[in-house]
Structure formats: C-alpha cells, structure tokens
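Attaching the record inline, Q. Sequence:
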Amino acid sequence: MTAYLWIKAAHILAVISWMAGMLYLPRLFVYHAGAAQGSEMAMTFEIMERRLMRFIMLPAMIVTWITGLTLAVEGGFFQAGWLHGKLALVILMSALHGYFSVVRKKFVAGTNERKARYFRVMNEVPTLLLIGIVILVVLKPV
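Structure, as predicted:
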C-alpha cells in the first residue's frame, strides 16, 4: 500500500507540472504571435517555449502516463467506466500537447499563420479537459 501511495503522489506532482505547462504554453503563443518574426522578442519566446516543452512538459507527461497506468493496474480500475472517460480525456490532452509541439515548430520555422486571438481560445482547452478529468476521478460517476 505504501508504494501505491508514493506512485499516487508522483502522479499528482507530474499532472500538476504537465498542466502548468499546458496552461502556460498557449499564453506564450499569444505573446509570440504578437512579436515581429525574427525579432529578439520572438527568439526569446522560441527559447522559452522549447525549454518549457522539453524540460517540463514532456517529462511530466511521460511520468503522468506511467504512474497513471500503474495506478489503474494496481487499483484494478480498468473495468470502471469513469476510467474509460478519464483515459479518453487524457488522450485528448496528449493530442493537444502534440498539437502545441507542432505549433511551436511552426513559430520556429516562421510559418505560423494564427493570430493571438486563436491562442487565447486554445488556452482554455486544457482547462476544460482538466475539469472533465478531475470530475471523473473524484466523483467516479460511472
């Protein structure tokens, strides 16, 4: 039981780290979209975005998946409907993470065509997914 609780603690810490990045990165995109291409400001955003993804978001996502699946196996939750819903939302969150990676590469290549307003809207998507995930985990409705 003690190992399970340590894995759970690691899972919660990884989720918090991943979500911090998922909420901050699109905000950086908002500011990046307003910076002149090739400017010192744009280059600063490129560095910030790359470091955030590489050193915080990607490791946190990997740890989230590993610890989450471990908890699901150890807890015998794969038969629970709430876990199926949660996994669907976490897969969507992971896909969004991948999309953000593509967007970051477009900024670096100078091919981003999206405006700041688009990224302001995209900034809300991780929040909505997170709300659904938390509700499913805490309330376990099905």
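Residues 40-75 form the longest helix (36 residues). Residues 57 and 92 are 15 Å apart (CA to CA).

More tomorrow.
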